[in-house]
Amino acid sequence: MPRCLIVPIRLMLWTVFITISVIAGIAFGPFLLPLISDTRKTDMANQQLIAYGKELLINTPYFLGPNGRIAKISNGMSCGNCHLDAGTRSFGNSFFATASTYPKYRARSGTVETVEKRINDCFERSLNGQGLDPGSKEMKALVAYIHSVGNSATPEMRENALIKPPEFLDRPASKEAGKLAYKNKCSGCHGENGQGLFDTNSDKWVNPPIWGENSYNNGAGFYRVSLLAGFIKATMPFGAVNGATQLSNEEAWDIAAYINSMPRPEMQLNDDWPEISQKPFDYPYGPYSDNFTQEEHKYGPFKPILQAQQARVKK
Ligand code: HEC
Ligand code: HEC
Fold first, then answer.
1. pLDDT on residue 222
2. Looking at ligand 1, which residue's alpha carbon is closest to its atom 30?
3. pTM for the complete prediction?
4. Gap from CA of 232 to ligand 2 centroid (Å)
5. Residue 84: CB within 6 Å of ligand 1?
């Protein structure tokens, strides 16, 4: 067949095919559509919600930061800066155990907390902002995503979900030693002044701030030295993964002590830990139900505090 005929014939065949498809669609569509079961539609809507939740978690500032498209309720950091690999990294503050453990009693508030309340805790403290309306699409999406991570986790993943504090030292964590180690191992990315590295083009932190006005506030989990030390030991310098960690226990505790000795935003904490005997060993604000000082509760040594706590429980 001459080449010049092939193209028009193809075009004609396509036109016929598309016309038949459209007619068939109009004729039979109304009968077929209900057959696409409702569960499939719900599944699809749920998948979309989960995907939106993941997006919110990774690109929090785009939606909810200081220039957020949906609301301006947080400090510009992303949830994913602290919940690594979007909350799917063992020991990296993952969400593997969240679906199976919430709602749960938390001594910080002295109440049984829903996962929505826990998420808003991170907005108010780790993101130094305000919580989302629990009924909002954004909250539903975050919950859907976080639950999807937990629902697909194995028992072993759930076991290793949360941050594990490094082995305790026999001395207080040292801000001075931490300052030096921070300079050598962290400041290249997070800056000499903990200020991080911001990219104005993408309106995002390349390396998030770890102290100062744009960082988590003094009510956040990381303001407890054991949680910060456990997190950085397992994950930092960025690229380190648990099993191939790059910090010694000493370095992890000392650097965490140094970071948390630097200034950061403060929130009102009067309602936290209504039962003071339930304050964690490393909660840096009194009053306490034991005789250790605020300084000791902040930097350690923690073994004596834990031993005293255990002795009290046994009595
Ligand atoms: C500055 C770091 C930081 C940021 C940013 C952050 N979080 Fe967290 N988040 C934490 C820490 C620390 C914990 C407590 C971990 C622990 O107790 O072992 C936590 C705990 C949680 C938990 C409870 C997990 C569980 O299974 O107990 C949820 C849910 C959560 N965060 C959601 C979020 C969401 C959603 C965002 C973003 C809006 C966010 N976090 C931002 C540090 C952060
Ligand atoms: C190569 C660059 C790099 C180095 C070096 C590095 N970090 Fe990070 N750090 C990052 C990045 C990037 C993130 C955010 C991770 C993400 O969003 O997935 C981060 C997140 C963090 C966070 C949680 C988020 C926040 O801002 O509070 C802390 C805390 C932290 N780093 C501490 C440290 C410490 C301590 C060291 C030194 C031991 C260190 N980092 C070394 C790049 C780095």
1. 98
2. 119
3. 0.89
4. 8
5. no
